[in-house]
Amino acid sequence: MRADKPNKGIPMIKKIPLTELKNRMRCFRKQMDLSNPDWEIAVIFSKINLYYFTGTMQDGMLIIPRNEEATLWVRRSYERAVDESLFSSIEPMNSFRDAIGSVSKASKLPDTVYLETEVVPLALYQRFQKYFPFKNVKPVDAQICAIRAVKSEYELSLLREAGRIHQHVLENLVPGMLREGMSEADLSTELFSVLVEKGHHGACRFGMFDTEMILGNVCFGESSIYPTYFNGPGGKFGLCPAAPVLGSRDRKLRKGDLVFVDVGCGVDGYHTDKTTTYMFGSSLPQYAIDIHNKCVDIQNEAASMLKSGNTPSQIYDAIMNRLDKEFLQNFMGFGNRKVKFLGHGVGLLIDETPVIAEGFDEPLQEGMVFALEPKKGIENIGMVGIENTFIVTAEGGDCITGDNPGLIPVY
């Protein structure tokens, strides 16, 4: 049951259309029927997936029985969920006991539940199982990732707007922010403020376990190849070992520095990913420029292959097999800290699947969205290369974050 009691005085809320929510649930059920024909019930806990299916990310759970209406049970805040969401069945919940009473009345609890095993903590599941005594747990992560990978026109419209903001800020405004003596932290905070002012939703969300991110990697020179736990080609010093985010307060911008800006931008939950580089005060050595330009060529070649029907693994192999041994040294990382992909899906998370890498053999579909990021570390200079976000089409990748090749001169 849904209680529609608008909360007077709240700002205008842009809600996900009901038709969009219904289509997502329909696609989920179809995917489950294909991959797990015997499924009977799935339960969603993660806030990102709750938002995807219901339009709100309040604390609670979404119960999806195979043959009955799905219900969003909300612990906190039920009132906000009703304000934000057009989902048809939203119920308040003080504890799991409230939900099991309704479910057990409707039907007998099956033996197996499908859960987001990649993100649900064991302790949470144990509390849940106290009232929902399922005998078996099976993962539902791959099925959700598969339907989220193909974006609707509604989702693509948000991604295009994020890309427009991203392009404008990184290509047109960042050059004017750079000044000698500023720190990486200075640039990061100024950049974050401008992105939010222009429409960025203020978060950069990752699926990688226990990953904190405010903005991305904003680095001067060698900072961009400093070791980090983050699963990407670039690095950064960060503020301190306890918070390796934003950038160093101590690394100041000097003439001759490479400036490396790899940040996300999002609108209403949907992210684009973009890397732009700048030459501050003077040009880089020609050999570094040549390496950068080769990375740009690799991006463009990979983008031309982002066609429906091609597979990510084919694209990865086609690119990597044509690169010579010398160039492969420090490509997609630095030293022994290299990643084994050329790009990744983006959407509600910056690091979504599929990935342009070996092992991803399912054909691309129109409406998938990828960030391509060929990059190469250079000792004593930093990380050169590029990253932009592309929509898969029948003709190839459609770039939505701009076409500037980077190494923008600022002097």
Structure description:
- This protein is α+β, with helices and mostly antiparallel strands and 411 residues long.
- The chain has 2 domains: 130 residues, Creatinase/prolidase N-terminal domain (Creatine Amidinohydrolase, Chain A, domain 1); 260 residues, Alpha-Beta Complex (Creatine Amidinohydrolase).
- It contains 11 helices and 19 strands.
- The strands form 6 sheets. The chain has a 5-stranded antiparallel β-sheet with strand order 13-12-14-17-18. Strands 1-2-3-4 form a 4-stranded mixed β-sheet.
- The mean pLDDT is 95.
- One of its GO terms (molecular function) is aminopeptidase activity.
- This is Xaa-Pro aminopeptidase.
- It holds the Pfam family Peptidase_M24.
- Keywords: Aminopeptidase, Hydrolase, Protease.
| CATH architecture assignment of the largest domain | Alpha-Beta Complex
pLDDT < 50 stretches = none
Instruction: Give me the number of helical elements.
Output: 11
Task: Give the tally of structural domains.
Answer: 2
CATH-assigned homologous superfamily of the largest domain: Creatinase/methionine aminopeptidase superfamily
- Binned, the helix content reads 25-40%
Q: What do we call the CATH topology of the largest domain?
A: Creatine Amidinohydrolase
Please give the largest β-sheet: 5 strands, antiparallel
Beta-strand share of residues:
15-25%
Report how far apart the termini are: 62 Å
Shape: globular
CATH class of the largest domain: Alpha Beta
Task: Report the count of strand segments.
Answer: 19
Widest β-sheet, arrangement of strands = 13-12-14-17-18
- Which oligomerization state do the chains in this entry correspond to? single chain
Secondary-structure element sequence?
Answer: HEHEEHEHEHEHHHEEEHHHEEEEEEEEEE
